[in-house]
Each structure stands twice: as C-alpha cells, then as structure tokens.
Specification:
With 299 residues, this protein is an alpha+beta fold. It is built from 13 helices and nine strands. Strand 1 and strand 2 form a beta hairpin.
Length: 299
C-alpha cells in the first residue's frame, strides 16, 4: 500500500500545484492541496471518492468523527460535510488528497453488470471483512493504473473508462460499498432535492421553512417533503438540526467554544432547546460529550 500511495503522490506532485483544487489532466479527477488546518471539501454534485494521499484528515459528520490516513478514502454521501480538519501535514507541510467523481450513469452501468448475489451481499452487509480490505486496497491500485494509463504517450479514453469501472467495482465491494450504492440511488432520484440539500448545508445557521424550499422548486409542501425524506433519509428541518448540532460539536472540540457560544453560532435562539436536542442526538449533554471525546482522542 505505501509503495502505491507514494507512487500516486509522485504523479500528483509532478502537477503544477496551487492551493485548493488542481486539474490532473484526467477527466473527473482533481488533486487537492492545502496548507491550512481547516480545509474545504469538494463541492461536487455527483458521487465522488476522496483519497487521502499525504497527511491525516478528520471529518465531522452526523454519523460521527471519522479520521483518514494516507491510503484511506471516504465516499461522498448526501450529508458529506463542507469542511474537514487536517490533523497532520506531510513532510512538505501540506495536505494532499485526490477526488474522483463518478456520474450516476457510470455507477448504474457497473451495478447492472454485477451478479445479483453480489448486490445482495453488498446491501445485506454480508461481505467478509477480508474481502472488503482486499477491495479497499484494490481501489488505490486501480487509481494508480488510471494515472499510468493517462500518462502514456498515446492516451486512451477507452482505458480510462474501463479503469473507472474497475474503481467503481472495488469501491462497491469494499468497506463503503453499501453506503456508496445507497447514496447513488438516493442522489439519482432527484437533482432538485440534491440541490436543496446542498443549499441547507450552506445555510443551516439561518432560519427557513419547508414552504420556502418547496416554493423555490415549484412543488407542493407534501411532495417536496416526501421527495426530500426519500432521498436524504430525513426531513429538511431534521437535516438542518443535525447539521447545526454536528457543527456545534466541532466548534466545542476544535475551537474550544463553550456551550452557549456554540449554540448561538449555529443558529439556536434557546440554550435549553440546544441542550435537549444535543442530548437526544449524541446521547449525552454537550459538556459531558466533549469531555468523553477528548479523553478518547488522547488515548
């Protein structure tokens, strides 16, 4: 794994590099470089793979705190955070990552070619742990082959498309397979719902109504709510609440904000309501939860 990652690092560092996103010359593949601790995650509408190449990344998601080292990857979901925190930088004092965007059509094409038994295993979470580990490694190896194919004297779009299908296959068989498959189906259901969810992610601190969101998309409130819940797995206001509480947790952990400051910064007008919602989502009151996490992270 280390050898493959180092090889990809070399390919990426050969690109003329700037802060933020950089074109690699490969369609749908972007190289990311950051020198600041807080970084922006890609704003990509299609599902994407985010591979850490050099450094260590922490993402705060409604599902929990996720840390990624070089060679590990995350899969975009509909609730992917807008930002992450770099825990460690490379020897060059930067953080390096790669995003690979997939069209829904590409993923569906790959899924249609899978055996029904394999799809059932993925959705039923019946894949063996060793199988998933091997597939996760194969994802990185396939990305390396993608760079090799596109760096040849005669570039081949045919090879690129086939290697991209290979990447999708291994992602589906890996540790994030079910999540990847579900998010693809959900996003594919409705572009306007994905756009609405993206808007909420950027404006969750501000008050809004479901009526306003539905009106912007010329839908009835009931239809919009039904479509949103089907695609995202929760209603718009519940989504806003989860984003507020997750960001408040990050503010208390990363920026040492106290409970009152964090609740106000994410848009809560009532401190008592914030504490009730926080306890309901995370299982503990804010102060207790932060102390518990800090102890666990120090181990």
């Amino acid at each position: 794994m280390n050898t493959v990652i180092q090889k990809i690092q070399g390919d990426v560092r050969d690109i003329s590099f700037a802060e933020g996103g950089n074109q690699t010359g490969i369609p749908y593949v972007t190289a990311w470089r950051f020198t600041s601790e807080k970084i922006q995650m890609p704003k990509i509408e299609n599902p994407y793979l985010y591979i850490v190449l050099d450094g260590m990344l922490r993402l705060y998601t409604p599902s929990g705190i996720m840390d990624y080292m070089a060679g590990q990857y995350s899969i975009s979901k509909i609730d992917t955070p807008l930002s992450g925190t770099v825990l460690t930088f490379s020897e060059q004092q930067d953080f390096l990552a790669l995003s690979i965007e997939f069209t829904t059509h590409d993923i569906i094409t790959a899924v249609l070619d899978l055996d029904n038994d394999l799809i059932k295993k993925i959705m039923g979470e019946d894949m063996e742990e060793q199988e998933m580990s091997i597939s996760d490694l194969a994802v990185i190896q396939s990305v390396d082959r993608l760079f090799c194919a596109m760096n040849q004297t005669v570039r081949s779009e045919f090879l690129r498309k086939n290697i991209m299908q290979e990447v999708i296959y291994y992602v589906l068989c890996g540790s994030c397979g079910k999540q990847f498959l579900e998010s693809t189906v959900n996003i594919g259901q409705s572009d306007e719902i994905y756009e609405a969810n993206s808007w909420i992610k950027e404006n969750f601190r501000n008050p809004f109504t479901v009526e306003e969101l539905a009106g912007q998309r010329n839908m009835s409130v009931s239809l919009f709510h039904q479509k949103f819940k089907s695609a995202v797995g929760m209603g718009p206001l519940q989504c806003q609440k989860r984003l507020r509480l997750t960001e408040a947790r990050r503010l208390m952990l990363d920026e040492s904000k106290n409970v009152t400051e964090a609740s106000a910064e994410v848009g809560y007008e009532s401190l008592s309501q914030f504490i009730r919602d926080y306890r309901k989502m995370f299982g503990r009151a804010p102060k207790e939860d932060i102390r518990t996490i800090q102890k666990r992270l120090k181990k």
